[in-house]
Design brief:
The termini are far apart. A hairpin with a 6-residue loop joins strand 1 and strand 2. The protein is 63% helix and 7% strand. It is mostly helical. Strands 1-2 form a two-stranded antiparallel sheet. It has one domain. It is built from seven helices and two strands. The radius of gyration is 22 Å and the shape is extended.
């Protein structure tokens, strides 16, 4: 009886039905490793951040695919193409040699790059004014400054 439970747990744990989150974690870990070794600039993340809704869309595609093998294969291929395109875009924005390589083989690259807006100077993932409170220690007066 316990052996059957172990087999069911093993099958559930190691099933290939959920692959989006592990794929994102592996790619994120590889990028962080490259960041630590200096192979990729840390500004890579600023160029990658605007694409976070794509992760939600990919998870939705995976849920829509369900258990249909053909739908799952198509979803997997779409996911790989989209993730490679996003990572290439973000890397080309931070690395001139990658950008030149892509320009050589894809003449429309500059037009594609110009469609996506530049990340703002605001380090927060949302746009808008930031309220900062400044207090004068002598008078105790505080005021809000918008940046």
């Amino acid at each position: 009886m316990t052996e059957e439970k172990e087999n069911l747990t093993e099958k559930k744990c190691c099933s290939s039905s959920n692959w989006v989150l592990p794929l994102i974690l592996v790619l994120g870990g590889v990028v962080l490793l490259f960041n630590n070794f200096g192979a990729i600039s840390w500004t890579f993340w600023n160029n990658l951040w605007p694409f976070w809704p794509v992760g939600i869309s990919i998870c939705g595609l995976e849920l829509l695919a369900g258990k249909n093998a053909l739908a799952r294969l198509i979803t997997f291929l779409i996911t790989i193409v989209v993730i490679v395109a996003i990572f290439t875009f973000a890397l080309a924005k931070t690395n001139a040699s990658v950008n030149n390589f892509i320009n050589r083989y894809l003449p429309q690259w500059e037009n594609i790059k110009n469609v996506v807006p530049e990340p703002s100077d605001n380090p927060l993932p949302f746009k808008g004014d930031r309220k900062i409170f400044r207090c004068d220690p002598q008078t105790g007066e505080c005021k809000a400054i918008y940046k």
